[in-house]
Amino acid sequence: MTGKWTPTKINGKAVSREYLLVFSYKILYNSIPMDYFATAAKFEEKGKLKKAVGAYDDAIKDNPYEPTYYKMRASLKNANQDEEGGMKDDLLAEKMRMEVLAVIQIAQTQRIR
Q1: What's the pLDDT at 91?
Q2: Block means of pLDDT (10 residues each) for the chain, length 113 residues?
Q3: How wide is the angle at C-alpha 89 spanned by C-alphas 12 and 99, nearest 5°?
Q4: Distance CA 70, CA 68 (A)
Q5: Do the beta carbons of residue 69 and residue 60 sit within 8 Å?
Q6: In whole angstroms, what is the distance from residue 28 CA to residue 31 CA?
Q7: CB 19 within 8 A of CB 7
Q8: How far is CA 9 from CA 1, 50, 90, in A?
Q9: Within 13 Å and on the Cβ side, how many CA atoms surround 68?
Q10: What is the pLDDT of residue 94?
Q11: pTM of the model
């Protein structure tokens, strides 16, 4: 984490803080990781905002500690007149940014013959 982490400070003084370090293990059989951003973008281009939100729902199920998915879903919810849902997702994204120090993804691709 050298160069990427700075301690939490209050009034300029470092304070004790607990962070979450997430290890994500995945084995992909005969596939590559899903590109949720591209999937959501295709739905959004077609004006299918609910399906785009659904793509981010799937992304969050697969990667629950990735704040970007919550931010993107919030944006789509706001565009779809769901301000309350958008606000909740914005808060969840901020919580992830504050609490998760790092997500280490360990993936392996396997071929089934």
Answers
A1: 96
A2: 74 87 79 86 95 96 93 95 96 90 77 65
A3: 35
A4: 5
A5: yes
A6: 6
A7: no
A8: 18, 40, 23
A9: 6
A10: 93
A11: 0.76
Residue found by looking up tokens 């990735």 in the block: 66
**Which residue has 């990427």 as its token pair?**
4
- Residue whose entry in the numeric block shows the structure tokens 């739905």: 43
Work out the burial of residue 101: count CB atoms within 10 Å of its CB; fewer than 13 is exposed, 13-18 middle, 19 or more buried.
middle
Domains located in the chain, CATH noted: 21-110 (1.25.40.10)
The amino acid that residue 102 corresponds to is: A
| 3-state SS record for the chain | CCCCCCCCEECCEECCCCCEEEEEEEEEECCCCCCHHHHHHHHHHCCCHHHHHHHHHHHHHHCCCCHHHHHHHHHHHHHCCCHHHHHHHHHHHHHHHHHEEEEEEEEEEECCC
Sign, CA dihedral 24-35-39-95, equals positive
